[in-house]
Amino acid sequence: MAEKADSELVRRQNRLLVLGALRQHGASARVELGRLTGLSPASITTICAQLISEGIISEESLPVITPPSGKRGRPTVRLLLNPGAALVLAVKISIDDVMIVLTDFRGETIARTEVRLPTYDAGRDLFGMALADEIARFLAAQRVVPRKISRIGVAIQGLADSRSGSIVWSPAFKEGDIPVAHALEERFGVPCFVANDANMIAEGLVSADRVRYGGVTAAIFTGYGVGMGVIINGEVFHGATGAAAEFGHMNHIPDGALCRCGKRGCVEAYVADYGILRHYTGETGREAPRSAVPESTMTGLNQKAKAGDVKARAAFELAGSALGYGIGRVISILNPDRIVLAGPGLQTSELMDQAMREALEKSVVEVLRRDVAIEQVRFSDDMIIRGTVDALLRIIDRDVFAIATPQAAQALAAHG
Ligand SMILES: [Zn+2]
Question: Which CATH architecture has domain 208-379?
Answer without folding.
Answer: 2-Layer Sandwich (3.30)
